[in-house]
Amino acid sequence: MRVLGVDPGLTRCGVGVVEGLPGRPCRLLHVEVIRTDPDADLATRLLAVSDGITAALTAWRPEQVAVERVFSQNNVGTVIGTAQASGVALLTAARAGLPVVTYTPSEVKAAVTGSGTADKAQVTAMVTKLLQLKVAPRPADAADALALAICHVWKGGTQARIAAAIQAAKTAQTAARQAQTGVRR
């Protein structure tokens, strides 16, 4: 499974692409931070975020996208910018026809470190270890984007397999009932 992770931000938006399977090590394919000028027009900044995500989608062809779910912070201005960048990420992925999943920061931290209260340094250290990188991804937005992608490979891949197994069981049950009652399609 190839996943693009997005750590949304208006000034710095982390984008990372990993490939892997649930329960197996992931492989880093790409990581970057899309930066926008805080003095630029809001629409121009949002367009730059969209263009950067679109470029990553085009170049790396992920199967799914994972975006960090916006959470309330003390700084309302920051949360608004993050929410706007998150909306752009969701829209850009949807326009590309890709399934998009959101994860809370604590879900991502728990997936990669084992603790939902891990700090940024712990997340960066674990991402570096899990991807067997020689150098830690910097800034933290880059590591967070990779953590989101890893989280989705592990959690989302497992959830998708469970959903497929449930659907297959339902289909088999329906076919068995139809065979018993003589109903044919």
Question: What does this protein structure show overall?
Answer:
By secondary structure, the protein is of the alpha/beta class. It has one domain: Ribonuclease H-like superfamily/Ribonuclease H (Nucleotidyltransferase, domain 5). Helices cover 55% and strands 17% of the residues. It has five helices and five strands, in the order E-E-E-H-E-H-E-H-H-H. The chain has helices at 42-60, 76-95, 105-113, 120-130, 140-181, and strands at 2-7, 12-19, 27-35, 64-68, 100-103. It has a five-stranded mixed beta sheet, with helices on both faces. Helix 2 links the parallel strand 4 (64-68) and strand 5. It is globular.
Strand order of the largest sheet: 3-2-1-4-5
| CATH-defined topology | Nucleotidyltransferase, domain 5
What string gives the helices and strands in order? Answer: EEEHEHEHHH
Radius of gyration, in Å, reads 19 Å
Distance separating the two termini: 34 Å
What percent of residues are in strands?
15-25%
Q: What can be said about the biggest beta sheet?
A: 5 strands, mixed
CATH architecture: 2-Layer Sandwich
Poorly predicted parts: none
CATH superfamily: Ribonuclease H-like superfamily/Ribonuclease H
Structural class of the helices, strands and pairings?
Answer: alpha/beta
* Rounded average pLDDT: 90
How many distinct helices?
A: 5
Taken together, the total number of domains comes to 1
Helix proportion range: 40-55%
Number of strands: 5
Q: What characteristic shape results from the CA principal axes? A: globular
Family: Belongs to the RuvC family.
Organism: Longispora fulva
Binding site for Mg(2+) 1: 7, 141
Keywords: Cytoplasm, DNA damage, DNA recombination, DNA repair, DNA-binding, Endonuclease, Hydrolase, Magnesium, Metal-binding, Nuclease
